[in-house]
Amino acid sequence: MEILQTIYNELVAFFSIGQVITMFKTGDYSVLNTLDGVLGVISPLIPLLLVIELTRALLFKKFKRSHYRIQFFIYVFNNVVGRFISIGVVGFIVGVLQPYALFNSSFTWYWLIYGYIVWELAHFVYHFLGHKVRLFWCLHSTHHAPEAMNLSVTYAHFFLEGPYADLIRTSICILLGVNPPLLFFIMFIDGFWGAFIHAGENLIKDGRLGFLQKLVLTPSHHRVHHARNPLYMDTNFCNLLNIWDKVFKTFQPEHHAIPPEYGITRTMNAQNFWDVYFGEFAALAKDMYKAPGITNKLLYLVMPPGWSHTGNHKTASVVRAEYLQQQPLQ
């Protein structure tokens, strides 16, 4: 019975339906009058979409266990690690930095627009650094390792990437005046959309979403971000509003003639949990060990992936620039 109860608890946690179950059991629907109550009811949508995606893949005989297996192991591993490590980065940063905010905003529609633009800037900074700083790439690469796109990729993260992301994003938002209640609301929207844009072709065949392609970042844009094609490398860092990708010239639409090839450029075994989860750390350690002098060793920590002390750089910027020089897009 204890095993069944554990399985039940894990399913409730995965689908985020604890609050919904409590509401039905008690018959008290007044919780829907609160923001927390509404968010608690909406939260199960992404896990539900994942089930629909899996079901469609099975029905249309496109299901491949390898497309979901490692993501499942990562989810379980992170859950186990999470029971022993709890880092309240957001709360800590809010408490420390709020007194130093440039000004105080409020929970109104116009401050929501301002707050979301600031949040997207903060997300861009965190995400850009995750691709351009080797140590941070070690944290982020687990998310890029899957070689197929589907909603299970949402759960494929190194366990320390969340705290690292929250440290950067929360710090920028609080210092630029986004007040905590507004920030938490934005985080919820961002979390839902950030999960949804990982929808694969088994759920949404054409990820462009019609006219929305011109207004927001769509699953098509994010499929480009996860691709290792030279044209697509290190592009589309935003999450919902792609304003900062356009400002910093990292915006890249999907081309019909160039289907995304998912995964990372390092030779790896995408079906090996240890390689997916710790492989980049091992590669970094090997490069640092071989590098001559303390300066070169330290540079491997902060320079982009693909940088080499020999000068034979294979960074994403170099690879993409060479590709565009050989095959300029019209």
Give structural notes.
- The chain is mainly alpha-helical and 330 residues long.
- The protein has one domain.
- It has helices spanning 2-15, 18-26, 35-42, 45-59, 69-82, 89-97, 109-132, 134-144, 161-175, 180-196, 219-225, 243-247, 273-290, 293-302, 316-326.
- The model has no long low-confidence stretch (mean pLDDT 86).
Question: What labels would you give this structure?
Answer:
single chain, 330 residues, mainly alpha
CA-atom Rg in angstroms: 21 Å
Mean pLDDT: 86
Tell me roughly what share of residues is in helical segments: 55-70%
The structural class is: mainly alpha
3D shape: globular
GO molecular function: glyceryl-ether monooxygenase activity; iron ion binding
Keywords: Lipid metabolism, Membrane, Oxidoreductase, Transmembrane, Transmembrane helix
Membrane topology: Multi-pass membrane protein
Transmembrane segments: 7-26, 38-60, 72-97, 109-129
Write the layout of secondary structure elements.
Elements: H1 2-15, H2 18-26, H3 35-42, H4 45-59, H5 69-82, H6 89-97, H7 109-132, H8 134-144, H9 161-175, H10 180-196, H11 219-225, H12 243-247, H13 273-290, H14 293-302, H15 316-326
Summarize the structure.
This protein is an all-alpha fold. It has 15 helices and no strands.
